[in-house]
Automatic annotation (TrEMBL):
One of its GO terms (molecular function) is protein dimerization activity. It comes from the Eukaryota. The keyword Isomerase does not apply. Keywords: Coiled coil, DNA-binding, Nucleus, Transcription, Transcription regulation. The keyword Nucleus applies. GO terms for biological process: positive regulation of transcription by RNA polymerase II. The gene is PI. Its main location: nucleus. This is MADS-box transcription factor PISTILLATA-like protein. Residues 67-94 form a coiled coil. One of its GO terms (cellular component) is nucleus. It is found in: Nucleus.
Length: 96
């Protein structure tokens, strides 16, 4: 759609429609749904099944598809944070 105003109106209508459908399939079929949409402006719109955290859905996606969402560097950082938090907890207990 060449006209930017028409493109924005179309985007808004279709975004609202797909968000409505995501909510409907989640409620009517007890499905776990996660939807993330980025507009050309960069604005993000999202929906996630209220009863299931996004992290849980992403973990299921990772296991089912075999695709890695996080690279090894991010996993190493996460592991390091966990290790430091445990060490910190241990030191706090020792100080008591």
């Amino acid at each position: 759609i060449e006209n930017s105003s028409n493109r924005q109106v179309t985007y808004s209508k279709r975004r609202n429609g797909i968000m409505k459908k995501a909510k409907e399939i989640s409620v009517l079929c007890d499905a776990q749904v996660s939807l993330i949409i980025f507009a050309s402006s960069g604005k993000m719109h999202e929906y996630c099944t209220p009863t299931t955290p996004l992290v849980e859905i992403l973990e299921k996606y990772h296991k089912q598809s075999g695709k890695r969402l996080w690279d090894a560097k991010h996993e190493n950082i996460s592991n390091e944070i966990d290790r430091i938090e445990k060490e910190n907890d241990s030191m706090q207990i020792e100080l008591r």
